[in-house]
């Protein structure tokens, strides 16, 4: 257990990051509707949540508003993103690979070889145009409330990248009740902006409520009477610190006293009943170093149950405020003509920055450290590998890795006028959503030039035909998709995936780091059975395709001695 905590703390500064891109597809340019009938779009994104963290995907947490979207909409069980926060957002908002859009690596971890190189700016660069800008150009009102994490300087804030009205947190994480940052290396205070100008954040209101309030204020039916809107609700839930009102935490203390082994088994069984997993799907073994729950002493069980209760309560609280936004749309007559999307940005975060060397800073800045106060305002709660594995459920790995636990997330879209309710296991990547948004809006990506400046073309494929039942498959035999961050790499083709974790992870106890592995995700989404020795020719072909991707996107590998611990210690 101690070994896992040490490994997890290596990644405590990973408040954002990841990467990916398409191979031979382009954005669809055929409008889905005329200007007079174009729907509004509400895009809701959660943060650092596991695949099974909402009820419709297996959770015991009460998420009735998200579950209702799933009941009335289409759920994607094979939807992929980047493995950390800001790269996923860069991919989502541009449809362009992160090695081109500026997030080739997180700014905290840029190596000497990467620093100053194109695509490695550490923020969303000007070599891309956002889908928000393009939607605004064709008549959409554009709004954002919540986490930005794509650039803090003037000219790179959300108001500069296409949003008409904004209320944004510029950094990646911090207190959900105020302006205290998420760590010593992040500076002392968070920065919030309103329409591009820095403002003071009101103290004492939870981020879920604050961002819902701001977005509701933007969604004025009179203001939107003559044109549709695109609204982006980017939540801090459930990035650490895991915080919620005490009554929400209390609701789950007894639930999680059953322990991580029982809860994980219950989630997987529920996923089978929901049709997400087959009835005979094997349960992957407990993550190395995670002890059986029954071996914990009583006081440790209480602390661990309270820790997960803070996480569950935070998600429950998030769903309540998502419901407020949806209720506002209903009350103002905007609901029926609004596409509503719910997704998360990456898998669960196993890191615990408040454990180990960072503990003194966190205790000073988040002083409520008593067991009974875990998760309340003034505390800093993170749950580590044992509970992270519960939220990933059947998937392998966590945030930052190129395994499915880091990359596969829930995705739900509701719009009955176009989309029948149901479930699909078609492989979709987050950039495909970028192309879909443009098609819905009747916008066309400009290709290589936008308003006099050179930009990278979008490389994505709209999923609107799939959602409308016009096709049963999203990709063809010639479609490939490559991905990389920190040397953690993957290449997707059909049902197959080849992956390689960075060689530097050997020092963190990952024995096969640096070696390519092959999986059939159709039959083995848990990545339990490495097919590399059985199908060496297929693996070799996929590795060669990854090399082509890496060269074409300008991937700059991290060195073999890449050491995030030393980078953090150096003040990054």
Number of strands: 18
CATH superfamily: Alkaline Phosphatase, subunit A
Unreliable parts? 1-29, 568-572
Global mean pLDDT: 91
CATH architecture descriptor: 3-Layer(aba) Sandwich
What would you call the structural class?
alpha/beta
Which CATH class applies here? Alpha Beta
Total number of helical segments? 16
End-to-end Cα distance, whole Å, is 27 Å
Approximate strand percentage: 5-15%
Query: Shape from CA axes?
Result: globular
CATH topology: Alkaline Phosphatase, subunit A
Structural domain count: 1
What radius of gyration results from the CA coordinates? 22 Å
What share of residues is helical?
25-40%
Largest sheet: 11 strands, mixed
Topology:
Layout: H1 2-9, E1 21-22, E2 40-46, H2 64-72, E3 74-80, H3 85-94, H4 98-101, H5 131-137, E4 141-147, E5 165-169, E6 192-194, E7 197-199, H6 207-218, E8 229-234, H7 246-256, H8 260-273, H9 298-331, E9 338-344, H10 359-365, H11 384-392, H12 404-407, E10 408-414, E11 422-424, E12 428-429, H13 430-441, E13 449-450, E14 453-454, H14 464-467, E15 481-485, E16 488-493, E17 496-500, E18 517-520, H15 536-553, H16 564-569
Parallel strand pairs: 2-8, 2-9, 3-11, 3-12, 4-5, 4-8
Antiparallel strand pairs: 1-15, 3-10, 5-6, 6-7, 9-10, 13-14, 15-16, 16-17, 17-18
